[in-house]
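User: My collaborator sent over this chain with a note saying "see what the structure looks like." That's all I know about it. Can you take a look?
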Amino acid sequence: MPPSCCGCLSQYTHHHLVAFLLTFFSYVLLHASRKTFSNVKVSISAQWTPSVQNGSAAAYSPGETWEDNRLFADERQATLFLGALDSIFLFSYAVGLYLSGVIGDRVNLRYVLCFGLCGSAAVEFVFGTLTEWLHIYNIYLYCGLWVLNGLLQSAVWPCVVAVMGNWFGKTGRGFVFGLWSACASVGNILGAFLASSVLKYGYEYAFLVTSVVQFAGGVVVFFGLLTSPKEVGLSLESETGLSPVETDTDSHRPLMSDEEDEVEGEVYGRTHHSVQQPDEPLDETPRAIGFCQAFCLPGVLPYSLAYACLKLVNYSFFFWLPFYLSNNYHWKEAEADRLSVWYDVGGIIGGTVQGLISDFMGKRAPVLALSLLLAMGSLVGYSHSPNDQVINAVLLAITGFFIGGPSNMISSAISADLGRQEALRGSQEALATVTGIVDGTGSIGAAGGQYLVSLIKSKLGWMCVFNFFVVMTGGSIVFITPLLFKEVCAMWRDRQALRRQL
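Assistant: Without extra context I'll predict from the sequence alone. Here is the result:
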C-alpha cells in the first residue's frame, strides 16, 4: 500500500516548496496570458468586422475608423480566422515542444524557461496591444506573431515538468503532480478575471496586463529557481531532511516498469538527489537520451496518441468556451468569461483526486479509462444544458473534472513516469524530451481540432461540435486500452500472489 499523502509531504524540504511554487506560478502566468486571447474573441471579432454587420461594434471602436480596421466582411469569416489562429499557434507550439524538450535536457532548464516566458510576453504585447495602439491590422502579421508565440511558449512546459521531476520522486507523484498540474487551470481562472476586469477599456488592455505580469514572473524565476537538488548540494548525507526520500528504493521506480519485484539499482544523475555509486564521479553529467529513443520508450506512443485526442477536446474548451457561452446563450462577454472558470475548477479537483487515487492503486490507466468513459456522458449532458447560468456552471465543473483531470495526469505525472522508467537505466536526462513528445503530439491533435471546431460550428452548429468531442474522447480510451489491459492483468497477478502468500 502506498504511503499516505501526509507521510510523503513530510519528506520534503523548503527547497521542494520553492521549486513547486516557482514552477507552478510560471505556468499559471503563461496560461493566464494565453487565456486572454480566448476571452476577448468576441471583442476582436467585433473590431475586425464592419459595424453594419456587428451591432456591438460601437462599444469597441469609433464608428469612423471601421473601414480602416475591417479585416473581414462578416462575423463568420472572422470566426474562421480566429480558429485558424488557434491552429497556427498549436501547430507551432507542437513543433516547438519536440525541439524544446531536447534542448531542455541539454541546456540549463532555468535559461530555457525564462527565455520562453519573457519572449512570449513580449510577442503577446505586440500582437494584442501595440498593433491596436498603432492601428496596424494585418492578417500576415497576426499569423507570424502567433507562430513565434507558439514556439516561445513551447519552451515552458517541458522545463517545468523536468524541474518537478528532478525534485520529486515517484512516491506520491500522482498526488503531488495532480495538485501541481492545476497550474494551467489556475492560470485560466486568473486570465479570465484579469481580462474581464479591464475588457471595458478595450481588449488591448487585457493583453497589456497579462503580458506585463508574465514578463515580471519570468524575471523572478530567473533569479529564484533551483532546477535540481544538486545546485544546493543536497544528498543523503546532508542534513536536509531528504534521507527518507532517498532511502526508499522504490520511490524512483516508475509505474510503467514490468519488473514489479526487481530492486532498482540504477545510477542516478543530476536529475536525482540520490547516492552516487562509489566508482562514479560526483560531478559526472549524465548523457541525454535521443529523440527517437525517447519516442520508442514503452508507453510513450500510446499515451501521446491518447493525449492528442484528449487535448483536442480540452483545448477546444479552453479556446472556445467563452465564445460559445456568449454566442449560444447571448450572455455578456464578461459574464461568459467568469462562468467559464468553472470548467477549470473541475479540472483542478479532477487532476488532484484522480492522481491521489492512482497513487493508492499503483496504476494510472484504470483511473484514466474510467474518467474518460464518464467524460463522454458529461459531454452529452453539457451539450443539452439549459439557458441557466447555475446549471451551466455545475455541468461545466463536472465536465472539467472528467476531461481536465485526465489531461492533467497525462501531461504531468504520467509524463514523469515515462521519463523515469526502467528502460532509461544509465541515461537519466529524458524527462524534458519525453514530456515534449507527449505534449507535442497532444498539441498536434489540438491544433487540427481548433480549425475543425470553427468549421463544424459554422456549417453544422454547436451540437455537432459536442458530438465530435464525444468521438475524440472515445478515441483516447481506444489508445490507452493496451496499457489498461496490461495494468489490469498486473493487478490480478499481484492479487493472486497475495492470496497464495496468505
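A starting point for your reply to your collaborator: The first helix runs from residue 5 to 9.
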